[in-house]
Amino acid sequence: MITILAIGFGGFLGAITRVLTSNFFNKIIPHDFPYGTLIVNIIGSFLMGLFFSYANSKGVNLLSKSIISTGFLSAFTTFSTFSYENLLFLQSGDYFHFFINVISNIALCLLAVWLGFLIFK
């Protein structure tokens, strides 16, 4: 039961951090493109790589892994928002932004998780 509560607490913090971060970037970057979601996904991917690299090299207990990865980072990243924004691009016929968004999120998030992982390797 403690693990479930810990994941919930981590998720609560991750969701709040996601909204604040996404809103911040959407306000400072003029756009017709979901930069906030993209940046949150890149940051979350980097942090996931960083965390698991650290956890694999130094050892982290299961409760900490649950709070950080399943709780905070899973709530912080925004795949459902990413999917919805892409659906809106498709429905409006904006195929250019659809492809840019999909390619950017996949390529940059894979790069970010790899860079994060390299830090403690």
From TrEMBL:
It is found in: Cell membrane. InterPro entries: FluC. The keyword Transmembrane helix applies. The chain crosses the membrane at residues 33-55, 67-84, 96-120. It is a multi-pass membrane protein. Keywords: Cell inner membrane, Cell membrane, Ion channel, Ion transport, Membrane, Transmembrane, Transmembrane helix, Transport. It catalyses: fluoride(in) = fluoride(out). The keyword Heme does not apply. Its main location: membrane. Fluoride-specific ion channel. Important for reducing fluoride concentration in the cell, thus reducing its toxicity. Belongs to the fluoride channel Fluc/FEX (TC 1.A.43) family. This is Fluoride-specific ion channel FluC. It comes from Campylobacter peloridis.
